[in-house]
């Protein structure tokens, strides 16, 4: 195996290990759940992507064939990570809403007239002004 | 060189798994635990990939793919159960 290819694969493995470690450290140390959600969904997914790239390069160097399994796993992980994060955030917000008393996580203001779409109904679009919401209909 | 990098990767991912386990046991809310389990599944996929490189076999990729799919499905089912009270209405 060429030395530069070996160095590249080793670098990818080390970087992906560091990213996975940082993601789990964030999951452990950050104070609130909405912050904790950031670390695994971005850093850990990137780390796994790096490990899969390293594996692809490794088996290309060893066996001389490009395997597509890693690309499948990478595509699946990169597609499902945002969906998972969205579901977890939504479940968290609804459970926070349902629970009364105790310390609640305060959401920042939206900056518009209406509130967050998880809690409040869609903004009233009356008459001609409804063109700014293209998703309706 | 790849040997040492793989050993570093094993150590890093194992430490990350221990941290996730800590969050899973400690987690103040149920959603924290769901998030910890989801992260543990992703870390296990990375561990399987590293082990496949360590042994030089491509046998483990199907396991990684299956684990990715089951992790996603289980997380979505958990969150839906928390939101709705049941999984399939």
Automatic annotation (TrEMBL), chain A:
<feature type="compositionally biased region" description="Basic and acidic residues">
    <location>
        <begin position="97"/>
        <end position="107"/>
    </location>
</feature>
<feature type="region of interest" description="Disordered">
    <location>
        <begin position="97"/>
        <end position="137"/>
    </location>
</feature>
<keyword id="KW-0472">Membrane</keyword>
<dbReference type="GO" id="GO:0015385">
    <property type="term" value="F:sodium:proton antiporter activity"/>
</dbReference>
<protein>
    <submittedName>
        <fullName>Multisubunit potassium/proton antiporter, PhaG subunit</fullName>
    </submittedName>
</protein>
<dbReference type="Pfam" id="PF03334">
    <property type="entry name" value="PhaG_MnhG_YufB"/>
</dbReference>
<keyword id="KW-0812">Transmembrane</keyword>
<keyword id="KW-1133">Transmembrane helix</keyword>
<feature type="transmembrane region" description="Helical">
    <location>
        <begin position="43"/>
        <end position="62"/>
    </location>
</feature>
<feature type="transmembrane region" description="Helical">
    <location>
        <begin position="6"/>
        <end position="31"/>
    </location>
</feature>
<feature type="transmembrane region" description="Helical">
    <location>
        <begin position="68"/>
        <end position="89"/>
    </location>
</feature>
<dbReference type="InterPro" id="IPR005133">
    <property type="entry name" value="PhaG_MnhG_YufB"/>
</dbReference>
Automatic annotation (TrEMBL), chain B:
<keyword id="KW-0472">Membrane</keyword>
<protein>
    <submittedName>
        <fullName>Multisubunit potassium/proton antiporter, PhaF subunit</fullName>
    </submittedName>
</protein>
<dbReference type="GO" id="GO:0005886">
    <property type="term" value="C:plasma membrane"/>
</dbReference>
<keyword id="KW-1133">Transmembrane helix</keyword>
<keyword id="KW-0050">Antiport</keyword>
<dbReference type="GO" id="GO:0015385">
    <property type="term" value="F:sodium:proton antiporter activity"/>
</dbReference>
<keyword id="KW-0812">Transmembrane</keyword>
<feature type="transmembrane region" description="Helical">
    <location>
        <begin position="6"/>
        <end position="22"/>
    </location>
</feature>
<dbReference type="InterPro" id="IPR007208">
    <property type="entry name" value="MrpF/PhaF-like"/>
</dbReference>
<keyword id="KW-0813">Transport</keyword>
<dbReference type="Pfam" id="PF04066">
    <property type="entry name" value="MrpF_PhaF"/>
</dbReference>
<keyword id="KW-0406">Ion transport</keyword>
<comment type="similarity">
    <text>Belongs to the CPA3 antiporters (TC 2.A.63) subunit F family.</text>
</comment>
<feature type="transmembrane region" description="Helical">
    <location>
        <begin position="60"/>
        <end position="83"/>
    </location>
</feature>
<feature type="transmembrane region" description="Helical">
    <location>
        <begin position="34"/>
        <end position="54"/>
    </location>
</feature>
<keyword id="KW-1003">Cell membrane</keyword>
């Amino acid at each position: 195996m060429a030395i530069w290819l070996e160095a590249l694969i080793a670098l990818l493995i080390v970087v992906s290990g560091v990213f996975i470690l940082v993601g789990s450290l964030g999951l452990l140390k950050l104070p609130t759940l909405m912050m904790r959600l950031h670390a695994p969904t971005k850093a850990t997914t990137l780390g796994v992507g790096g490990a899969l790239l390293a594996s692809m390069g490794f088996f290309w160097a060893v066996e001389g064939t490009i395997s597509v399994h890693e690309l499948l796993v990478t595509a699946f992980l990169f597609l499902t990570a945002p969906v998972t994060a969205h579901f977890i955030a939504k479940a968290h917000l609804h459970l926070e809403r349902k629970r009364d008393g105790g310390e609640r996580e305060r959401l920042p203001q939206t900056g518009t007239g209406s509130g967050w779409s998880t809690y409040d109904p869609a903004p009233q679009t009356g008459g001609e002004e409804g063109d700014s919401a293209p998703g309706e209909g | 060189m790849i040997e040492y990098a793989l050993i570093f990767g094993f150590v890093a991912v194992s430490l990350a798994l221990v941290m996730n386990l800590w969050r899973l046991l400690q987690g103040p809310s149920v959603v924290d635990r769901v998030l910890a389990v989801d992260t543990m599944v992703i870390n296990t996929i990375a561990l399987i990939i590293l082990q496949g490189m360590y042994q030089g076999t491509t046998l483990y990729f199907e396991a990684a793919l299956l684990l990715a799919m089951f992790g996603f499905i289980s997380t979505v089912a958990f969150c839906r159960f928390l939101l709705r009270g049941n999984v399939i209405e």
